[in-house]
Amino acid sequence: MRAQFVLSEIGVGLRRNLTMTFAVIVSVALSLALFGGSLLMREQVSTMKGYWYDKVNVSIFLCNKNDKETAANCAKGAVTEAQKQEIESELKQMNIVESVHFETSEEAYKHYKEQFGDSPLADSLTPDQMQESFRIKLKDPERYDVISTAFAARPGVQEVQDQKALVDDLFNLLNGMNFAALGVMTLMLIVALMLIVNTVRVSAFSRRRETGIMRLVGASSFYIQMPFIMEAAIAGLLGAGFACVLLVSGQYFLVNNWLVDKIDVINFIGWDAVLAKLPLVLAIGLLMPAFAAFFALRKYLKV
């Protein structure tokens, strides 16, 4: 009998505040969709960092005959064989270096033609104009400064370049977008909580006579509060369900059927990452409104 009464009261409350309940569902859905999307974005950035940082190298570009007037370290002309051997020997002795590859000017010219063959400058370049270089793979990509400090001012070295810096701007942009999404999510959660509290207040005020009678006949506070808490929890759970639908749809339509075909250089996260976030979204959608309603009722159900 008690369970039937609680369920009937939940139905009455949801019908009485249909408009506000719908607003709660929409705001919870959007805020939790942004929350889940932010978690997935963070995981995607971490995956991309692991993938790209593993591939980037530190490059030590050596002086050639054309750098004599453009670089201070190349004032004495092109790098000598002794200088190249000395640099290579020191690199191989460093414990932070995983591997060292020497790229000749002919190899550099070939790679340039493969990547920029359509450029107007491609036909005017010759192999002897390309720079020789050492391509260094570090055990820890963050230790670039050790290589730069050791070789940047070395005679015969035109420049030390860290390829990691080329992708850091992309990761900074993605992290900025993630923080922006988190900011919007926080604002939406605040709006959702305010709507939940107001909905519970209106519902409690409209049924103050019934709750007063229940209090007078000896009903416990928990028994009186339960219908209101369940109303908020059901609305939040429905919103969380719609958020899960948005996340799954985003993975299927946006990532799997569009971005994967458009951007083939990124290893996108899969369904396992998305499905792992859904229980958390549902749990937050259920518990957050319930706790908000519980604290709001402590004042408005006093008789």
UniProtKB/TrEMBL annotation:
Is Cell division there in the keyword field?
Answer: yes
GO cellular component labels:
plasma membrane
So which domain of life are we looking at? Answer: Bacteria
Membrane-crossing residues? 21-41, 179-200, 232-254, 274-297
- ABC3 transporter permease C-terminal domain location, by residue? 184-301
Biological processes annotated in GO: cell division
Which keywords annotate this record?
Answer: Cell cycle, Cell division, Cell membrane, Membrane, Transmembrane, Transmembrane helix
Membrane-related topology note: Multi-pass membrane protein
**Where does the protein end up?**
Cell membrane
Q: What is its main location?
A: membrane
Q: Where is the FtsX extracellular domain?
A: 56-160
Q: Does the keyword Hydrolase apply?
A: no
Which family would the database say this protein is a member of? Belongs to the ABC-4 integral membrane protein family. FtsX subfamily.
Its annotated function is as follows: Part of the ABC transporter FtsEX involved in cellular division.
Which proteins does it associate with, and in what oligomeric form?
Forms a membrane-associated complex with FtsE.
NCBIfam families per record: FtsX_actino
The protein depicted here goes by the name Cell division protein FtsX
Q: From which organism does this entry originate? A: Streptomyces violaceusniger (strain Tu 4113)
